[in-house]
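**User:** You know discrete backbone vocabularies at least as well as I do. Would you mind producing a protein record, from residues through to fold? Write it directly below this note and I will take it from there.

**Assistant:**
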Amino acid sequence: MESTEKVAAASGASVSHIPENLELILINISGHDRPGVTAALTSILARYNAMILDIGQADIHHTLSLGILFRTTSDVSGDILKDLLFKAYDLGVKIRFSPVTVEEYDNWVNRQGKNRWIITLLGRRLTASHIALVSEVISAQGLNIDAIQRLTGRQPLDETAYPMAKACIEFSVRGTPANRDEMQSRFIQISSEEGFDISLQEDTMYRRCRRLICFDMDSTLIQTECIDQLAERAGVGEKVREITERAMRGEIDFIESFRERVSLLKGLDVSVMQEIAESLPITEGVGRMMEVLKRAGYKTAILSGGFTFFGDYLKHKFGFDYVYANELEVKDGKLTGNYVGEVVDGKRKAELLRLIAQVENVNIAQTIAVGDGANDLPMLSTAGLGIAFHAKPKVKESARQSISTTGIDGVLYFLGFKDSYIS
């Protein structure tokens, strides 16, 4: 009687109202999809007062796959199955019936409390090998795949005609990984060797309601470093690159290197900044991404170790809500070689992310950060979702999520957006 009590609790009924001749039946329908199939079959169940306990439907290339688990009683189950069988014949679809025991149903109900994970595969194209490798890792970690869906549009056969096409598949899996760090490490290894991107996220309420996304600017939103552009115009490009390399080797910190590089820009006419801004190489996908994020109500920010002049240019061009960067001092139309205010380094970026989240009344778990450099790591680790974008290997290893194969609009797929409702 214990199992019957569990079924009663799951369905909201009291034990005394559960009939002794209870039957649980799973039906699987497959065939050419057409309007009205689901309506016709569920109408039969409704006529016999059957209770639907679970239902799922998918359409792959006009082929329907529909599953319905329902409860009824043995005195009408035969009539239900007969009517369903005749209706399926009329509709031109195949139907299969499978009895489900009360114990099996109990086990299914009890699994609903387990953790759920979202695994996203992204690339210019995805192969059977990619999906097989990821599925093997999922299985080895003791997780079960509940659902798989394609987030991108239908793939063209002629890849040469659509070189910038993208492919994205999302797995919804359930369970607790045997070793999450090992799983993450294996995903990074596979994606690096096979040339696609992969994201592993716990499917929490925060993942479904992200609200603030912060971006680095240089080499993230734009495909250049603005200080390099300014240095070339000032005739000190080589000197600036040398300082940058010293900073990358750890010989000097970011603030010291920034101060040295800015000092070399002394005397440059401020009009050069406008010329550079108007010719900035925008990263693939920025326009599409910003259009979707604004439409979805996200707050967006640029947090950059570059310069406010260029950040403001992008803000007006694409509609960012916030810009925090470094302000170059200008006198008599010329750069003085100094800067104004506090330098926006890695630590400051993380502080600004927290500040904006507080101002917007957004939980830190609802925030996203996207960047490419080592000075973005504090911001990436602070955000609820940190994404390394076309980043160096060490940055990719430190960030749990990374995008290296597509434009920056690949971020949308990691957030769960589908082409069908963002295009």
Summary: The first helix runs from residue 2 to 11. The two ends are 53 Å apart (CA to CA).
